[in-house]
Amino acid sequence: MKLRSTQVFYSAAAAALLFVAACATKKQANQTLTVRTTATPTGTTATATVGPGKKEGIKKFGDVINGKVVGDKGLFTVYKADGKYYYEIPDSLLGREMLVVTRFVKTPARLKTFGSQYGGEEVNNQVWKWERHDKQIYLRVPSYSVRADSTSDMYRSVKNSNLDAVLAGFDIKAYNKDTTGVLIDVTDFYNGDIPAIGIPDEIKKAYKATAIDATRSYIDTIKSFPINTETRTLKTYRAAESPTDNSNASITFELNTSMLLLPKTPMKARLLDPRVGFFGQRQTDYGTDAQRSEVTAYIHRWRLEPKDPAAYERGELVEPKKQIVYYIDPATPKKWVPYLIMGINDWNRGFEAAGFKNAIVGKPAPTPKEDPEFSTEDARYSVVRYFASDVQNAYGPHISDPRTGEILESHVGWYHNVMSLVHDWFMTQTAAVNPNARAAKFTDEQMGQLIRFVSSHEIGHTLGLPHNFGSSYAYPVDSLRSKHFTDKHGTAPSIMDYARFNYVAQPGDGVTHMYPQIGEYDLWAIKWGYSWFPGNKNAEQEKDILNQWTIQRAGNPLYYYGRQGTSLDPRLQSEDLGDNAMKASTYGIANLKRILPNLEKWTYQKGEDYDDLQTMYGQVITQYGRYMGHVTMNIGGLSENFKTYDQKGAVYTPIAKNLQHDAVDFLNKQLFTTPYWMINNAELAKFDNGVVLNRIKSIQVNTLGSVLSSSRLARLYDNQAKYGSTVYSVADLFNDLRGGLFTAGKPDAFKRNLQRGYIEQLKGLLNENTSPSFPGATPAQLANAGLTPINTDLSDIKPMVRAELKKLDASLPKGGDAMTAAHYADLHGRIKEALNPTRPIVNVGPGGAQRGIQAAEPDTEF
């Protein structure tokens, strides 16, 4: 048959294409294939190299793993053959859920990021599930954001709309000898650039890191244990910048990925209750009897079950089947190890309230000789990790089973420089009455006890307890001046409050116990969260019992839980003590007045410069600012007491009118009247180059901005609308402030600064819509945080501000010396501009009248 010319052309072209394709296929057989996969349920996209493009088919086991290769048996049997790593996955573990935790092992020096950056810190955690489909194994990431019980009619519907993401796919290389398991190659997976087991995005962005450099990356080891595997990798990323040397054009990390088998029988979940503080997890549950989708929340807690249930039921203290064990990082200085362990073991008193003895223990990490397999990165072990860092902090995280809230392990982060933080706080808050705090360097015993206190606090977090900022309010201020009371109770009923050290006690009181300790609330919280109930009760049945316990303690401040994250309730504050901020702060300032003149003497070190004097002078100013913040929270405040329908009384109640008046009176006397006692020229001359006085002015103006924030004024108006003249009003506030800010006589530089600040704050309220606005936050969420929204254009704020400015304009004097006359003329000009603006308004203070919720400088927190 004769072909047309066009047919000849297309045939030739086809032949050429076939030849090119054949060459490409041959070439591809020697390359790796890059596959895009979904790394997380939130949709993060990862790049994983999962092997050659040419599929080789399933081989005999012996053709892949020869008889000379010895497998490391455990969760999965791990083989290393010809430079590659293989998992032998038994059929019995397909579909089982496994917790995967990736941590840094080693990091570059001077690494600065917003997240993890030290060896031992967590990078990521996920749940993995290995599944087989035909001739491949897929690694999937389950999501737990929605659920329904498997017996529920909604179960199938939920499963259909909650598909598990696929992280990676693997060809089955061989079946094991009895065909009860499969063999896969995981080399390229662990060497790949996958967010779940690699460095965080913020580090990549900070150092402009791109792809992994395979020539400078490798798998160090993969070890298998009975319920986990541990994979250690070294990953080098090509990077435009480096924390150490940009000429390397790279950044290198050593990481460990733990894969831990989750319990086949999940722990019984305990429902969260906002009246008792526990960390928890929320899920939308479609399997309940509610006639809507219902959010259920489970607390995070360790699985504690009695060895002897009968003895437990008789009320005897019983050891748990499995003790909670924390190991101290071998990198920890030896002299601090006993104190860290004391802080851990202190919680046994808490667990006794729940019926358990010897429930928790701290131990030094075993030496390589004692246990050659022990690793601080191993997910089976909880560890207090010690970081060589100048960060002034410590933190107590935990990792829990997303199905039930069971805490599985914790790595407490302990930064070396937390000692500097507690030193400065202890000295600033107690040196007036405590000779042990009057030194630039404390004795090892004194510092050890401070470490013990911080250790107990952080371990509390790892047991599931959040901060209880409402606890310290339970103790009357004057009780903190009693030696008998403080020896027994410390400074607050909960060590989980930020009730640091006793700044209330005065010289002559005889108080020597300055610390918080595990107290009445902590015992109650552990009892509530960890008590074991016999009879196989479900979560709802347990909830009924726990609710009765909670109601029995309602109204007793010893058992009150006050959440963190709101500026509504003046009881819920950081670093405060006692039941009256004005009274406690007055005592605190009296002690600061005693401490400040002695700072040079108490920080003296032969041959050293004045850095310590400068630091501690700054700490005194910061502590003073904290007191101002504690008092300010009373103005426009609401007490918050969460309740259920079976409890009487209000959840939200305005702070008493007289207390709000007392708060403004305190500010007028202690802050808005110049605190000259803070200006010690003899000491300032040793280090201050014109900074300190401006810091004092900033505290004054920032506090004033906080008092006049639109959120605070909104609550005052809201309370007045509800309760009338029985509550403190905006008119009361303006009258009280005016009386303190514009006193008779010549204003000094501080007072002039304040008077200008007051008019600028009013100007901002008058000429801007100052309602808080945070993208994505609803009005209810803002109000919940204390950022009460208000439309100032339509509210009563602007008429009241306008009237206040006119009142000021009419009452301000004129004349005086040159500076005073110029000052009053300027104030009149500012008022005129506020009432008839001709230029854009620029607010003063932290965000002007819009923000400034807390007057104190930000604290370094643990």
TrEMBL record:
For the keyword Protease, the answer is yes
| Pfam families linked to this entry | DUF4953 (PF16313), DUF5117 (PF17148), DUF5118 (PF17162)
Would the keyword Hydrolase turn up in this protein's UniProt record?
Answer: yes
Checking InterPro entries in the record gives: DUF5117, DUF5118, EcxA_zinc-bd, MetalloPept_cat_dom_sf, Zn_MMP-like_bac
The DUF5117 domain, residue ranges:
120-307
EcxA zinc-binding domain location = 440-744
Entry keywords, A to Z? Hydrolase, Metalloprotease, Protease
Q: Where is the DUF5118 domain?
A: 58-107
Record's superkingdom?
Bacteria
Q: Which GO terms describe its molecular function?
A: metallopeptidase activity
What's an example GO BP annotation here? proteolysis
Per its UniProt record, what PANTHER family does this chain match? PEPTIDASE M1A AND M12B, ZINC DEPENDENT METALLOPROTEASE DOMAIN LIPOPROTEIN
Task: Tell me what this protein is called.
Answer: Zinc-dependent metalloprotease
